[in-house]
């Protein structure tokens, strides 16, 4: 009987220990006896918490002890700076990880953690999208507008798949990984005010599953800030722009020169908001180039504000060979200029008279050209 009591006590102690830890068992090919690093991800922070020297056949182990109040956490298993795997570990999980160390992010497999397996699925889609964009970037022989259109289509398809995953798995931390994913050039897949509902869905759903998680608390703050931006945009309505005049914008062009919107007074100006990842924006530029070439010598100018980060914006300006004034603050949809002008979707534009008065908003095609012609007389 005493032996049975001791045995039960030992089992309970062992179970308690396993519930306060998580394990990673890995095997990397093309690696040998090199060092693998384990990095813990916080909100905007990262910290190397352990390392292991792999055996000759590339196997290694990590045991992660969870503090008493520690929530499930994101980790990186890293070979070097740009070669790593993202995992999300909960108490008691044992994760088995394998892959080719020379191209870890694209080759790895993982099991033992449902969330980490879902992160792998999202990473596959992200890597496939990046490969498609890289291939299109190398098609120098194709017309620039055709390349931009195809790149926009690739981006939209990627985002659609992410949206499907988020809507289907709103209580999964893998959805948090998806909504904060980035493409090359620090281009966010999500982040515009049009994405507010997806941030709200995740914020509300994850707060039920992980109420004390620092990641979820940060997500909620982000969502609230986006919500405030929308409310501010509602207050500064398009009608108010008409009654109080044209608010000033002062942004830098692709060469770093600061250009004020007010400096163009005396010309008929089209204030245009766009994003190179938006297909309508790209197609709109093609038509606008013809209008610009036709009327620029008669006193017409375009002041185009990009709602994208720096790299994709400059690349698009160069590909489409845009000759008008191109400016940006690299803040994407969070640009104060977009908020002040109540821009909730793109493309969006404002036609401004020689005297600085608003002629019309969201004019395109023949309507735009006829209003330009009338204003130039």
Automatic annotation (TrEMBL):
<keyword id="KW-0676">Redox-active center</keyword>
<dbReference type="InterPro" id="IPR036249">
    <property type="entry name" value="Thioredoxin-like_sf"/>
</dbReference>
<keyword id="KW-0732">Signal</keyword>
<feature type="domain" description="DUF4369">
    <location>
        <begin position="23"/>
        <end position="118"/>
    </location>
</feature>
<keyword id="KW-1015">Disulfide bond</keyword>
<dbReference type="InterPro" id="IPR050553">
    <property type="entry name" value="Thioredoxin_ResA/DsbE_sf"/>
</dbReference>
<dbReference type="GO" id="GO:0017004">
    <property type="term" value="P:cytochrome complex assembly"/>
</dbReference>
<dbReference type="GO" id="GO:0016209">
    <property type="term" value="F:antioxidant activity"/>
</dbReference>
<protein>
    <submittedName>
        <fullName>Peroxiredoxin</fullName>
    </submittedName>
</protein>
<keyword id="KW-0201">Cytochrome c-type biogenesis</keyword>
<dbReference type="InterPro" id="IPR000866">
    <property type="entry name" value="AhpC/TSA"/>
</dbReference>
<dbReference type="GO" id="GO:0030313">
    <property type="term" value="C:cell envelope"/>
</dbReference>
<dbReference type="Pfam" id="PF00578">
    <property type="entry name" value="AhpC-TSA"/>
</dbReference>
<feature type="domain" description="Alkyl hydroperoxide reductase subunit C/ Thiol specific antioxidant">
    <location>
        <begin position="246"/>
        <end position="357"/>
    </location>
</feature>
<dbReference type="GO" id="GO:0016491">
    <property type="term" value="F:oxidoreductase activity"/>
</dbReference>
<dbReference type="InterPro" id="IPR025380">
    <property type="entry name" value="DUF4369"/>
</dbReference>
<feature type="signal peptide">
    <location>
        <begin position="1"/>
        <end position="22"/>
    </location>
</feature>
<dbReference type="Pfam" id="PF14289">
    <property type="entry name" value="DUF4369"/>
</dbReference>
